[in-house]
Amino acid sequence: MAKFHNMLVAIDPNQDEQPALRRAVYLHQRIGGTIKAFLPIYDFSYEMTTLLSPDERTAMRKGVIAQRTAWIREQAQYYLEAGIPIDIKVVWHNRPYEAIIQEVLACGHDLVLKMTHQHDKLESVIFTPTDWHLLRKCPCPVWMVKDQEWPVGGKALVAVNLSSEEPYHSALNEKLIRETISLAEQVDHTEVHLVSAYPSTPINIAIELPDFDPSIYNDAIRGQHLLAMKALRQQYGIPENLTHVEKGLPEEVIPDLATHLEAGIVVLGTVGRTGLSAAFLGNTAEQVIDHLRCDLLALKPDNYQSPVLPEDSVEAS
What are the coiled-coil residue ranges (predicted)? Predict the structure, then answer.
């Protein structure tokens, strides 16, 4: 069950608006739990201070940390005055994603929320290197929050893999659906949809085999996906009209359906093995994510181990 009672919000240091913090407060008001506003900070001018004494260098670091801590407290003042429990922590670290994952490991956070930026013309979400590292390597779920308000009646779209016989795919499918349904019930009874994409006829086969009938092939593939989707939706009591089996590339089908449904969030599984490798999409996951125009919740398999090691020597306020 998705509990998300120990949330870590990665603060964006470059702007005052913090949609990820707003989303965390939204979740807290419905499911409770704690919130930590977390900011890794590093001033590269620090590298130019080698002529200063160790005490002066330490004072410089502490000064920067204190300044940013006060800034975050100012941004969170409205929530703090409303009684929302928000812990503020600023650390000195030159690799933000490592600092965030190390904090997750050290404090047992069960959800990381981070803001994403939107391309003004394309309306697609822009992911930074830190975003990609978190999606690939963070052991707990990562919620990438779009810098816009949640759409009225926004739905949750769960991308499942129905084409693989690998056992971990099936287990991850079930985890995605189970946790999304649980979260939807706890938060605002969001409508949960399932989607799976199946491939069209390979062109090379159609060309090389004159007797090959593409329509029969397509019907067979679609039939297999429909049967698998039926079994999955029946297992979790999801109505047929909330399930979608579409022909095409996942990086086209999933973002297009999310836009059509006016989905508030897309939920997908990642294994983080080679790049961002979604269990149901292989190496196309990055393309899927690049085309999304809504929030993204990425979950890992239960046995996932992050390649980032815990670190006890990070200096914090």
Answer: none
